[in-house]
Amino acid sequence: MLLSSYRLGNLTLPNRLVMAPMTRSRAVDDKPTASTATYYAQRATAGLIVTEGLHPSAPSQSGPFTPGLHRDDQVEAWRTVTDAVHANGGRIFAQLMHGGRVSHPEIAGHHPAGPSAVALTTEVFAGGGRKPAPTPRAFASSEIAAEVQTFADAARRAVDAGFDGVELHGANGYLIQQFLSSNANLRTDGYGGSITGRIRFAVEAVEAAVDAIGAERVGIRFSPGGTVWDVVEDDVPALYSALVKALPDIAYIHVLATTDDETLMGLRKAWPTAFILNPGGQISPVEGTREQGERWLANGADLISYGRAYLANPDLVERFRLGLPLATADAETWFQGGDKGYIDFSSYRH
Protein backbone atom coordinates (compact mmCIF):
# COMPACT_ATOMS: atom_id res chain seq x y z
CA MET A 1 0.00 0.00 0.00
CA LEU A 2 2.86 2.42 0.64
CA LEU A 3 3.57 2.51 -3.08
CA SER A 4 -0.02 3.10 -4.18
CA SER A 5 -1.24 6.52 -5.25
CA TYR A 6 -3.40 8.84 -3.16
CA ARG A 7 -5.47 11.95 -3.83
CA LEU A 8 -4.62 14.72 -1.35
CA GLY A 9 -6.74 17.82 -1.89
CA ASN A 10 -5.98 18.92 -5.42
CA LEU A 11 -2.82 16.82 -5.64
CA THR A 12 -2.36 13.28 -6.88
CA LEU A 13 0.46 11.66 -4.93
CA PRO A 14 2.23 8.78 -6.73
CA ASN A 15 2.86 7.00 -3.43
CA ARG A 16 1.96 7.30 0.25
CA LEU A 17 5.38 8.26 1.57
CA VAL A 18 5.76 11.73 3.06
CA MET A 19 9.15 13.26 3.74
CA ALA A 20 8.70 14.60 7.26
CA PRO A 21 9.88 18.09 8.24
CA MET A 22 13.40 18.10 9.68
CA THR A 23 15.48 21.05 10.86
CA ARG A 24 18.79 21.21 8.97
CA SER A 25 20.16 24.62 10.11
CA ARG A 26 21.70 25.59 6.79
CA ALA A 27 19.97 28.88 5.97
CA VAL A 28 21.99 31.95 5.08
CA ASP A 29 20.44 35.30 6.06
CA ASP A 30 17.30 33.34 7.02
CA LYS A 31 16.96 32.10 3.43
CA PRO A 32 17.37 28.76 1.67
CA THR A 33 20.40 28.32 -0.57
CA ALA A 34 21.13 26.57 -3.86
CA SER A 35 22.03 23.49 -1.81
CA THR A 36 18.58 23.62 -0.20
CA ALA A 37 17.02 23.40 -3.65
CA THR A 38 19.23 20.42 -4.47
CA TYR A 39 18.42 18.71 -1.16
CA TYR A 40 14.66 18.80 -1.66
CA ALA A 41 14.78 18.13 -5.40
CA GLN A 42 16.81 14.96 -4.73
CA ARG A 43 13.90 13.67 -2.65
CA ALA A 44 11.10 14.65 -5.04
CA THR A 45 9.98 11.03 -5.57
CA ALA A 46 8.28 11.23 -2.16
CA GLY A 47 4.51 11.42 -2.45
CA LEU A 48 4.78 14.69 -0.54
CA ILE A 49 7.65 16.71 0.93
CA VAL A 50 7.09 18.84 4.03
CA THR A 51 9.94 21.28 4.55
CA GLU A 52 11.87 22.09 7.67
CA GLY A 53 10.09 24.64 9.85
CA LEU A 54 9.99 28.16 8.40
CA HIS A 55 9.42 30.99 10.87
CA PRO A 56 6.37 33.02 9.84
CA SER A 57 7.65 36.25 11.45
CA ALA A 58 11.01 37.54 12.58
CA PRO A 59 10.28 37.23 16.34
CA SER A 60 9.04 33.65 15.90
CA GLN A 61 12.44 32.26 14.84
CA SER A 62 13.38 29.39 17.15
CA GLY A 63 16.87 28.33 16.15
CA PRO A 64 19.98 29.70 14.45
CA PHE A 65 20.48 29.23 10.71
CA THR A 66 16.81 28.44 10.14
CA PRO A 67 14.86 29.92 7.22
CA GLY A 68 11.85 32.21 7.30
CA LEU A 69 8.92 33.13 5.10
CA HIS A 70 8.03 36.70 6.02
CA ARG A 71 10.13 38.79 3.60
CA ASP A 72 9.96 39.24 -0.15
CA ASP A 73 13.55 38.04 -0.63
CA GLN A 74 12.70 34.85 1.27
CA VAL A 75 9.78 34.25 -1.08
CA GLU A 76 12.11 34.60 -4.05
CA ALA A 77 14.64 32.23 -2.52
CA TRP A 78 12.01 29.60 -1.78
CA ARG A 79 10.69 29.87 -5.33
CA THR A 80 14.02 28.45 -6.49
CA VAL A 81 13.42 25.45 -4.20
CA THR A 82 9.83 24.82 -5.24
CA ASP A 83 10.76 25.17 -8.92
CA ALA A 84 13.47 22.53 -8.49
CA VAL A 85 11.10 20.11 -6.73
CA HIS A 86 8.36 20.59 -9.31
CA ALA A 87 10.86 20.18 -12.16
CA ASN A 88 11.67 16.76 -10.69
CA GLY A 89 7.97 15.86 -10.52
CA GLY A 90 7.51 16.45 -6.78
CA ARG A 91 5.00 18.14 -4.49
CA ILE A 92 6.04 20.29 -1.52
CA PHE A 93 4.35 21.93 1.48
CA ALA A 94 6.04 24.56 3.66
CA GLN A 95 5.93 23.92 7.39
CA LEU A 96 5.16 27.12 9.31
CA MET A 97 6.87 26.99 12.71
CA HIS A 98 6.44 29.65 15.39
CA GLY A 99 8.91 28.95 18.18
CA GLY A 100 7.10 30.84 20.93
CA ARG A 101 9.09 30.46 24.14
CA VAL A 102 11.63 28.15 22.46
CA SER A 103 13.98 30.91 21.39
CA HIS A 104 16.59 33.37 22.63
CA PRO A 105 17.30 37.07 21.97
CA GLU A 106 20.61 36.11 20.34
CA ILE A 107 18.73 34.05 17.73
CA ALA A 108 15.95 36.33 16.59
CA GLY A 109 16.93 39.68 18.05
CA HIS A 110 13.69 39.63 20.01
CA HIS A 111 12.82 38.45 23.49
CA PRO A 112 10.73 35.28 23.13
CA ALA A 113 7.03 35.34 23.98
CA GLY A 114 4.57 32.57 24.68
CA PRO A 115 1.22 31.80 26.26
CA SER A 116 2.58 32.41 29.77
CA ALA A 117 5.77 33.59 31.46
CA VAL A 118 7.02 30.06 32.05
CA ALA A 119 10.64 29.34 31.12
CA LEU A 120 12.03 26.13 29.72
CA THR A 121 14.15 24.12 32.12
CA THR A 122 16.32 22.98 29.20
CA GLU A 123 18.82 25.08 27.27
CA VAL A 124 18.35 26.41 23.75
CA PHE A 125 20.82 26.68 20.87
CA ALA A 126 22.09 30.27 20.58
CA GLY A 127 25.30 32.14 19.98
CA GLY A 128 27.31 29.10 18.92
CA GLY A 129 26.25 26.85 21.78
CA ARG A 130 23.63 26.02 24.37
CA LYS A 131 22.38 28.77 26.65
CA PRO A 132 19.72 28.95 29.36
CA ALA A 133 16.32 29.80 27.92
CA PRO A 134 15.02 33.17 29.09
CA THR A 135 11.63 33.46 30.75
CA PRO A 136 9.27 34.34 27.92
CA ARG A 137 7.00 37.34 27.92
CA ALA A 138 3.33 36.31 28.07
CA PHE A 139 1.27 37.50 25.13
CA ALA A 140 -1.39 39.99 26.10
CA SER A 141 -4.88 38.96 25.04
CA SER A 142 -4.90 41.87 22.60
CA GLU A 143 -1.74 40.55 20.88
CA ILE A 144 -2.92 37.05 20.05
CA ALA A 145 -4.88 37.97 16.92
CA ALA A 146 -1.68 39.35 15.41
CA GLU A 147 0.18 36.11 16.15
CA VAL A 148 -2.64 34.14 14.52
CA GLN A 149 -2.34 36.41 11.49
CA THR A 150 1.35 35.56 11.04
CA PHE A 151 0.28 32.08 9.91
CA ALA A 152 -2.14 33.51 7.34
CA ASP A 153 0.46 35.96 6.02
CA ALA A 154 3.10 33.25 5.73
CA ALA A 155 0.61 30.92 4.03
CA ARG A 156 -0.01 33.54 1.34
CA ARG A 157 3.72 33.99 0.89
CA ALA A 158 4.13 30.22 0.61
CA VAL A 159 1.70 30.10 -2.30
CA ASP A 160 3.49 33.06 -3.87
CA ALA A 161 6.74 31.09 -3.50
CA GLY A 162 5.27 28.15 -5.39
CA PHE A 163 4.52 25.80 -2.51
CA ASP A 164 1.60 23.42 -2.99
CA GLY A 165 0.40 24.14 0.53
CA VAL A 166 1.43 24.69 4.15
CA GLU A 167 1.61 22.63 7.32
CA LEU A 168 1.23 24.45 10.61
CA HIS A 169 3.64 23.09 13.21
CA GLY A 170 1.48 22.20 16.17
CA ALA A 171 3.90 19.64 17.59
CA ASN A 172 7.23 19.28 19.40
CA GLY A 173 6.78 21.97 22.01
CA TYR A 174 6.55 25.03 19.76
CA LEU A 175 3.99 27.81 20.07
CA ILE A 176 0.83 26.00 19.03
CA GLN A 177 1.56 23.09 21.36
CA GLN A 178 2.53 25.54 24.10
CA PHE A 179 -1.06 26.82 23.98
CA LEU A 180 -2.33 23.23 24.06
CA SER A 181 -0.20 22.33 27.06
CA SER A 182 -1.11 22.41 30.73
CA ASN A 183 2.28 23.59 32.00
CA ALA A 184 3.37 26.23 29.44
CA ASN A 185 -0.14 27.70 29.24
CA LEU A 186 -1.32 29.05 32.60
CA ARG A 187 -3.64 31.66 31.08
CA THR A 188 -6.97 32.54 32.64
CA ASP A 189 -8.46 34.30 29.61
CA GLY A 190 -10.19 32.66 26.64
CA TYR A 191 -6.93 31.04 25.46
CA GLY A 192 -6.24 28.95 28.54
CA GLY A 193 -7.70 26.97 31.38
CA SER A 194 -10.25 24.59 29.92
CA ILE A 195 -9.69 22.34 26.92
CA THR A 196 -11.86 24.72 24.91
CA GLY A 197 -9.53 27.57 25.80
CA ARG A 198 -6.31 25.67 25.21
CA ILE A 199 -7.29 24.52 21.69
CA ARG A 200 -8.50 27.96 20.64
CA PHE A 201 -5.17 29.29 19.33
CA ALA A 202 -4.57 26.19 17.19
CA VAL A 203 -8.06 26.36 15.72
CA GLU A 204 -7.82 30.08 14.98
CA ALA A 205 -4.39 29.71 13.36
CA VAL A 206 -5.69 26.97 11.08
CA GLU A 207 -8.82 28.97 10.24
CA ALA A 208 -6.69 31.99 9.34
CA ALA A 209 -4.51 29.91 7.01
CA VAL A 210 -7.62 28.40 5.41
CA ASP A 211 -9.10 31.86 4.84
CA ALA A 212 -5.81 32.90 3.23
CA ILE A 213 -5.17 30.01 0.81
CA GLY A 214 -8.01 27.48 1.02
CA ALA A 215 -8.61 24.36 3.10
CA GLU A 216 -7.21 21.97 0.49
CA ARG A 217 -3.79 23.61 0.89
CA VAL A 218 -3.55 23.49 4.69
CA GLY A 219 -2.43 20.76 7.10
CA ILE A 220 -1.30 20.71 10.71
CA ARG A 221 1.11 18.50 12.65
CA PHE A 222 0.56 17.21 16.20
CA SER A 223 2.54 15.20 18.77
CA PRO A 224 -0.15 14.15 21.26
CA GLY A 225 1.38 13.67 24.69
CA GLY A 226 4.85 14.51 23.36
CA THR A 227 7.23 16.06 25.88
CA VAL A 228 9.89 17.79 23.76
CA TRP A 229 10.82 21.25 25.07
CA ASP A 230 9.27 20.54 28.49
CA VAL A 231 5.67 20.38 27.28
CA VAL A 232 3.13 18.53 29.41
CA GLU A 233 -0.43 17.88 28.23
CA ASP A 234 -3.17 16.73 30.59
CA ASP A 235 -5.90 14.34 29.39
CA VAL A 236 -4.42 13.79 25.93
CA PRO A 237 -7.35 11.79 24.46
CA ALA A 238 -9.92 14.43 25.45
CA LEU A 239 -7.69 17.34 24.41
CA TYR A 240 -6.99 16.06 20.91
CA SER A 241 -10.48 14.68 20.40
CA ALA A 242 -11.85 18.16 21.03
CA LEU A 243 -9.20 19.72 18.82
CA VAL A 244 -9.82 17.58 15.74
CA LYS A 245 -13.57 18.10 16.10
CA ALA A 246 -13.10 21.89 16.22
CA LEU A 247 -10.81 22.12 13.19
CA PRO A 248 -12.17 22.85 9.72
CA ASP A 249 -11.88 20.01 7.18
CA ILE A 250 -8.38 20.82 5.99
CA ALA A 251 -6.20 18.69 3.71
CA TYR A 252 -4.71 16.60 6.52
CA ILE A 253 -3.56 16.20 10.07
CA HIS A 254 -0.05 14.84 10.54
CA VAL A 255 0.32 12.93 13.80
CA LEU A 256 3.47 11.60 15.46
CA ALA A 257 3.19 8.28 17.29
CA THR A 258 3.81 9.92 20.67
CA THR A 259 0.86 8.36 22.49
CA ASP A 260 -0.82 4.97 22.70
CA ASP A 261 -2.32 3.23 19.70
CA GLU A 262 -5.84 3.50 21.10
CA THR A 263 -5.65 7.30 21.19
CA LEU A 264 -4.11 7.44 17.72
CA MET A 265 -6.83 5.19 16.33
CA GLY A 266 -9.46 7.38 17.96
CA LEU A 267 -8.04 10.43 16.20
CA ARG A 268 -8.01 8.53 12.90
CA LYS A 269 -11.66 7.62 13.27
CA ALA A 270 -12.65 11.15 14.26
CA TRP A 271 -10.79 12.92 11.45
CA PRO A 272 -12.67 13.18 8.11
CA THR A 273 -9.83 13.88 5.64
CA ALA A 274 -6.29 12.59 5.14
CA PHE A 275 -4.49 11.21 8.19
CA ILE A 276 -0.67 11.18 8.06
CA LEU A 277 1.04 9.03 10.70
CA ASN A 278 4.71 9.23 11.62
CA PRO A 279 5.55 5.84 13.16
CA GLY A 280 9.01 6.94 14.35
CA GLY A 281 7.47 8.99 17.15
CA GLN A 282 9.38 11.90 18.64
CA ILE A 283 12.59 11.00 20.45
CA SER A 284 12.99 7.34 19.57
CA PRO A 285 16.50 6.55 18.27
CA VAL A 286 14.93 4.17 15.76
CA GLU A 287 13.32 5.52 12.60
CA GLY A 288 9.92 4.20 11.62
CA THR A 289 10.18 1.17 9.37
CA ARG A 290 8.36 0.19 6.21
CA GLU A 291 6.64 -2.55 8.19
CA GLN A 292 5.32 -0.03 10.72
CA GLY A 293 4.10 2.13 7.88
CA GLU A 294 2.26 -0.72 6.22
CA ARG A 295 0.70 -1.68 9.57
CA TRP A 296 -0.64 1.84 10.05
CA LEU A 297 -1.98 1.98 6.52
CA ALA A 298 -3.82 -1.26 7.22
CA ASN A 299 -5.19 0.36 10.40
CA GLY A 300 -6.61 3.34 8.56
CA ALA A 301 -3.80 5.86 8.05
CA ASP A 302 -3.71 7.36 4.55
CA LEU A 303 -0.08 8.45 4.36
CA ILE A 304 3.09 7.61 6.31
CA SER A 305 5.83 10.13 7.03
CA TYR A 306 9.50 9.32 7.43
CA GLY A 307 12.13 11.65 8.76
CA ARG A 308 15.64 10.33 9.44
CA ALA A 309 15.29 7.65 6.77
CA TYR A 310 15.14 10.44 4.18
CA LEU A 311 18.40 12.06 5.31
CA ALA A 312 20.71 9.46 3.75
CA ASN A 313 18.23 7.90 1.33
CA PRO A 314 16.98 10.43 -1.21
CA ASP A 315 15.70 7.42 -3.18
CA LEU A 316 13.74 6.02 -0.22
CA VAL A 317 10.71 5.20 -2.38
CA GLU A 318 12.81 3.07 -4.72
CA ARG A 319 14.62 1.35 -1.83
CA PHE A 320 11.27 0.40 -0.33
CA ARG A 321 10.02 -0.73 -3.72
CA LEU A 322 12.98 -3.06 -4.30
CA GLY A 323 13.61 -4.08 -0.70
CA LEU A 324 17.06 -2.47 -0.68
CA PRO A 325 19.02 -1.69 2.50
CA LEU A 326 18.92 1.83 3.89
CA ALA A 327 21.93 4.05 4.44
CA THR A 328 22.34 5.94 7.73
CA ALA A 329 23.31 9.58 8.09
CA ASP A 330 25.95 10.61 10.63
CA ALA A 331 24.11 12.53 13.37
CA GLU A 332 27.06 14.92 13.56
CA THR A 333 26.06 16.28 10.14
CA TRP A 334 22.37 16.88 10.87
CA PHE A 335 22.77 20.51 11.92
CA GLN A 336 26.42 21.35 11.24
CA GLY A 337 25.92 23.29 7.99
CA GLY A 338 27.59 22.74 4.65
CA ASP A 339 26.90 20.09 2.01
CA LYS A 340 28.41 17.10 3.83
CA GLY A 341 25.62 14.92 5.13
CA TYR A 342 23.16 17.08 3.23
CA ILE A 343 23.32 16.64 -0.53
CA ASP A 344 26.19 14.15 -0.90
CA PHE A 345 24.05 10.98 -0.65
CA SER A 346 23.42 9.04 -3.84
CA SER A 347 20.91 6.52 -5.05
CA TYR A 348 21.54 2.88 -4.23
CA ARG A 349 24.20 1.19 -6.34
CA HIS A 350 24.12 -2.56 -6.72
Automatic annotation (TrEMBL):
Per the record, the domain of life is Bacteria
**Keywords of this entry:** Oxidoreductase
Q: Which Pfam families match?
A: Oxidored_FMN
Q: Which cofactor does it need?
A: FMN
Molecular function terms from GO: FMN binding; oxidoreductase activity, acting on the CH-CH group of donors, NAD or NADP as acceptor
A single GO CC term for this protein reads:
cytosol
Answer whether the UniProt record assigns the keyword Oxidoreductase to this protein. Answer: yes
Q: Domain NADH:flavin oxidoreductase/NADH oxidase N-terminal, which positions?
A: 7-325
The entry assigns this protein to a family as follows:
Belongs to the NADH:flavin oxidoreductase/NADH oxidase family.
Q: Which PANTHER family match?
A: NADH OXIDOREDUCTASE-RELATED (PTHR22893), NADPH DEHYDROGENASE 2-RELATED (PTHR22893:SF91)
Q: Quote the protein name from its UniProt record.
A: Alkene reductase
Which organism is the protein's source? Lentzea guizhouensis
